[in-house]
Amino acid sequence: MDDAAPPLSSSSTSEWPNSADGYVLETRIGHGAFATVHKATVKTGPKAASQVAVKIIELEEFADSSLEEIRRELQMMRMCRHENVIAYHVAFPAKRQMWLVMPLLEGGSCAYVMRARASAGGFEDEGIIAYILRETAKALKYFHDNMQIHRDLKAGNILLSGDAKVYLSDFGVAAPLRD
């Protein structure tokens, strides 16, 4: 799965620490059934002081068959090269966990933005919604053009950067698209 657009992070994985000791976990910014996402700061190496998101997957919660989902998510993220698909910096095991270090997207998830806007009276400009949908559709088209299906499209898996770029994330249940 390759495209003309560069990945969100084109840096070498060797620039990023590949153990839990290389990061300071800060606030929890998301969670699911088997994983938690934290805002973190890089402690060591060329990227020291960088802010990142760390998805920590609890491996002991998974049956052996479910470990395939983790492998598939990492493989999908490694293969994808599209401006609207999130990339990861490095992934590594830590005790009974898998750590996935990704760019920190300050805009949060679409679910977060929708809740915040709803409590503030809703969206004043429908163009914002159209933009997010258009960018998400580009990511889905990229998947489909490469014979893949995401299978978990929801507001919590659409992430926004501080400069309003839109990224599709969470490929744990992605699968090959069959005719």
CATH superfamily of the largest domain: Phosphorylase Kinase, domain 1
Spatially, the strands of the biggest sheet line up as 1-2-3-5-4
Helix and strand sequence:
EEEHEEEHHEEEE
Separation, N- and C-terminal Cα atoms = 18 Å
Structural class: alpha+beta
Q: What is the number of domains? A: 2
Which stretches of 5+ consecutive residues score pLDDT under 50? 2-10
Helical residues, percent: 10-25%
The CATH architecture category of the largest domain equals: 2-Layer Sandwich
- Residue-averaged pLDDT: 86
Rg of Cα set: 16 Å
Total number of β-strand segments?
A: 10
Shape: globular
The CATH class of the largest domain, by name, is Alpha Beta
CATH fold label of the largest domain: Phosphorylase Kinase, domain 1
Distinct helical segment count? 3
Residues in β-strands, percent = 25-35%
Major sheet details: 5 strands, antiparallel
Pfam family, one: Pkinase
GO molecular function: ATP binding; protein kinase activity; protein serine/threonine kinase activator activity
Binding site for ATP: 55
Keywords: ATP-binding, Nucleotide-binding
